[in-house]
Amino acid sequence: MKVALVIFTRNERKNSELIYSKIPRNLVDAIYVIDGNSNDGTSEFWKSKRIKVFGQKYKGVGGAYESAFRSTKEDALIFFHPDGNMDPKDINKFVKLLKKGHEFIVASRMIKRAYNEEDDQILKPRKWFNQGLAIIANIIWGRNGNKCTDTTQGYRAFTRNAWKKLKINIPNPVAPDYEQIIRALKYNVKIADFPTKEGKRIHGETTMPSFKTGRENLKVLWNELIS
Ligand SMILES: Nc1nc2c(ncn2[C@@H]2O[C@H](COP(=O)(O)OP(=O)(O)OP(=O)(O)O)[C@@H](O)[C@H]2O)c(=O)[nH]1
Ligand SMILES: [Mg+2]
């Protein structure tokens, strides 16, 4: 089984430079970058490391997933953000689980031994919202013991076959992660997870303000309910 690491970037030059040496290149068969029109030299940085950079046809992070599966050939893809949120040491865990036969794996920030960026706050609005989305999806679509624990985590991996089973043609641009989780529950694609510790963004600003992502996640839920 050939496994590729796919990095999503939009103006992540400084973070890319810092994270680059921490990526275990030897664990995967290929590395690709899907870039959403960065204007800070992000693409140039990755190209200088001899890593292929692809653009995207559809908008947002959702469009990046579509481009990833269309532009590459490997049997499984692991998705990674280079902004400091994701621990590159987890790449090894994804590779092992894929090789064991798991088809959809999420690095969960919501289970025992995991850490979420809000865990040292008393009020955890983003975490609670995420957990609410998980409860709703599990009640409506969970069956045969299939369930999700972290609906909005982008640190995940799929086999190409599992991706096809989700039947997502044009992904939601802002909330593709929840969309994939719901489709997996709907179509019986087994979700595996392991605990991860979320880090803080190093440089730059989020492209995902909470209010906008919250609204888009609810839109995804509604669309999946009525379709
Ligand atoms: N290819 C592509 N990547 C994107 C796009 N928008 C954001 N990204 C990248 O996707 C990842 C997730 O976006 P973030 O802005 O970090 O969202 P977040 O993790 O919810 O927010 P933070 O807490 O600030 O890290 C980052 O690596 C971004 O650079 C896009 O339109 N296309
Ligand atoms: Mg981030």
Distance between the termini: 34 Å
Main sheet properties: 7 strands, mixed
| Low confidence ranges | none
CATH topology: Spore Coat Polysaccharide Biosynthesis Protein SpsA, Chain A
Question: CATH class, anyone?
Answer: Alpha Beta
| Helix/strand/pairing category | alpha/beta
Bound molecules: guanosine-5'-triphosphate, magnesium ion
Radius of gyration: 16 Å
Going by CATH, the architecture would be: Alpha-Beta Complex
Q: Quote the average pLDDT.
A: 97
What sequence of helices (H) and strands (E) makes up the elements?
Answer: EHEHEHEHEHEHHEH
Oligomer: single chain
Helix content: 25-40%
Would you report the number of β strands? 7
Sheet with the most strands: spatial strand order: 3-2-1-4-6-5-7
Number of helices: 8
- Count structural domains: 1
Question: How would the global form be characterised?
Answer: globular
The proportion of residues in beta strands is 15-25%
Q: What does this protein look like?
A:
This protein is an alpha/beta fold. It has eight helices and seven strands; from the N terminus they run βαβαβαβαβαβααβα. It has a seven-stranded mixed β-sheet, with helices on both faces. Helix 1 runs parallel beside helix 2, helix 5 runs parallel beside helix 7 and helix 7 runs parallel beside helix 8. The longest helix is centred in the middle third of the chain and has 17 residues, at 125-141. 42% of the residues are buried. The chain binds guanosine-5'-triphosphate and magnesium ion. Guanosine-5'-triphosphate (GTP) binds at residues 8-10, 12, 34-36, 56, 60-61, 64, 81-83, 85, 154, 201, 206-208. Residues 8-10, 12, 34-36, 56, 60-61, 64, 81-83, 85, 154, 201, 206-208 line the site of guanosine-5'-triphosphate.
